[in-house]
Amino acid sequence: GRNRLGAEGALRLSEGLAKSHLEVLDVAENEIGNHGFAAIMKAAHGCRLSSLDIKQNGITDRGLLAVKELFALTALKAINFRNNGITHYGAVVFQELPKTLELLNVRSNPIGNAGLVSIAAGLASSSMETLNLANNKIDHEGLKILMACTAISRLKTLNLSGNQLKAIDHPYLSLCRDSAMEDLDLSGSAFDENSI
Hints:
Layout: H1 6-17, E1 24-26, H2 33-44, E2 51-53, H3 61-66, H4 68-71, E3 78-80, E4 103-105, H5 112-123, E5 130-132, H6 140-147, E6 157-159, H7 170-177, E7 183-185
Parallel strand pairs: 1-2, 2-3, 3-4, 4-5, 5-6, 6-7
Helix pairs in contact: 1-2, 5-6
């Protein structure tokens, strides 16, 4: 990653990817944009790629929506969308996550509570164990949406740091008690002694 590959370079890379045995691809911080992302996703549909890091590549809602049909059909186990331009409009793609997906990182994308609705819907169809929702403008109402999703109980790691969480009611404490949760990050939240 981090080589300024650009969209054209991502197109060339994707041509070889479709015929390869590559399982891990890191193109983070390479300015691939929407077109480069689309090319990589088309190639990922027919190969063994299980882990894709596309952090900070200028991928927007438009780019994510363009590959909606392909996304759920990949064999990806881990994907890092951190620091792109994905809002709740693009997050609708996450309503149908790959069944094999174990890790989704959407940290620092302004998806908000509306985007969280889509992710919660997709959790049921995936094998998700790790979900990073840090710095996504999620508040207490968003946390309620997440808690209403029964698939949340199989998550082992959940990062909600840096969101707009201010209070936790007793039912939300069951997130740790009645689940597979091993790591819950709520740092950067405005909790006080009256919140719990």
